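Memo to structure team: turn this sequence into structure tokens by end of day. - J.P.
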Amino acid sequence: MRDLPVDPGTGLTNFRRYTWWSLFGVTAFFLVFSVRSRITDPTVPVAARLAAVGALTVALPAIAVSISRRLPRADLDPGGADPAGRPPVRWLVAGGAGAVVLGGILLALRDYGLWSFGPAMMVSIVAMFLPARRRWLLIATAAAVAAVLGGVTAAVSEHAVVFAAAFPAGLVVFTGWVMLGMLWAWDVAERLNAARRLSAELAVKDERLRFAADLHDIQGHHLQVIALKSELAARLAPADPARAAEEMTQVRRLATDALRDTRAVVQGYRRVTLEEEIANATGVLAAAGIDARMELDPAAASHPLPEPSRHLLGLVMREATTNVLRHSRARHAEIAYRITGGLACLRIGNDGAPGPGTSPGPGIGGGARAGVDGDAGPGLGTGLPTLAERLRAAGGELTWRHDGDDFVVTATLPVGAR
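Reply from structure team:
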């Protein structure tokens, strides 16, 4: 038996080894026990003893290989040539033939107690490869056949019919119960290991999505501001070269900041915070020619939120600012942040939001429409609908309202949310 590679630290390799030896050990013991006395009995014909030894020699390796083929699963041997759990028909036939020969020899010798050991064990081995609902159907059928065969043979030979019929049937059920019970324990452990591996893979994928979302937020935000300032510089160049040069200097600084932030995200150090985003938003909106007013409740400054809450509200602040720049012709914007009744409330409003089907036209801050989609569709960690789901998961709420030219985003979050 070979041990297949599994995740270290789970103990599944040792449990597989234990299960294999338990199943094979029980089977080999009962097979040898059933014919041992007959093989060593000098009164038994030599041909019968040689046939029993030959059948035993064929049955034991076939059973060992069959058990080995049943225990590995696809997640334990992804590079294997054989699909895990596929019935090894040739080995099962060989093992079944050996078990039938052993049972036939003992039955011919009128051993009505031991003849059914070989067939009963082989029935359990075959049942391992069947679906759960069919296993016990096979065992029940085999028990009935064994009872009829043993009873009829005993009746013809004028022996105890009840014992000859009941013992084989009970043995088939008993061996099936024991061996399939051990196999059931292995299957449960294997499924738990597969679930653990799946959970680890999902955690990795979630982290990749989080990283992609953060990188998208950083690059999208900086690139949007760079585009706006570059456009402004191009317009100012003919009339005010000095102001245009100043805007391009800020573009260079923004590009440097974007590079620094990207490196920080790669290293896993950067976390968006509400304070930083409010400060950045007022500066960026002012650079875009938007009159941005900020209302900060003193109580909010004296009761800072936990870092996860600050991060989440910071993402809302960033997304709302990006929407103002991309999807509106706003001339005024208001940012209000306060803590009341155990709730942190962030409100961002602006005018100049076009109605459905209208275009804000060209100009700084212009875009396709005033919307809630932000820079990307749902599922990328950005956009108001996605952020609303994240706030709900944290016990908060994110709403937005479009009334005429006004567009207002409101985020609330419990002060102790984590």
